[in-house]
Amino acid sequence: DTAVSQTPKYLVTQMGNDKSIKCEQNLGHDTMYWYKQDSKKFLKIMFSYNNKELIINETVPNRFSPKSPDKAHLNLHINSLELGDSAVYFCASSQALGTYYEQYFGPGTRLTVT
Amino acid sequence: EDKVVQSPLSLVVHEGDTVTLNCSYEVTNFRSLLWYKQEKKAPTFLFMLTSSGIEKKSGRLSSILDKKELFSILNITATQTGDSAVYLCAVERSGGGADGLTFGKGTHLIIQP
To answer: Is 60 exceeded by the pLDDT of residue B105?
Structure first.
């Protein structure tokens, strides 16, 4: 069984478009995260979210917004896409906020903005 | 601003060699240091270190933290081609949150047969 799944795996779109990436976890975890990994493999945490709070990395543009319809899902919406948004986006989950040592990552979504 | 610097950025060795990967950091209110292995897809967790001088070991991999000198090393002995990957170091600071985890740029390790 897949623990953390993301769709789509690949996403190619044009500048200015709005797109979403979906993430689901079936581990019963309380906390989910979004990461961005750029072309140089530099990984950066974007958001942490549990049922009580959303914590945003202040360097993330407000064009990015996480939406959680329920505890098992944390989708990432990106408005007005820019070339610099091209990256691999990873979703992850853990039992509690900040328990990074037990984090499970999804397979990643490669976003290409043309 | 929190900083994590890994060295070398890339390393090519032969199977059977021993490698040492380095991670130095500057972080406010240090809580833990984590090592991950990333092959073609998502990172997988290797170790979490919180106490200085205590070695964590898993098979041929081991890691140790020096909180005084603000660095950690990851050792891999008797390397195999399956060890080829990017190894990421990350530092967590107290208070957690989305900006509570800072990654280094990784060491790209290639093991040649």
So the answer is: yes
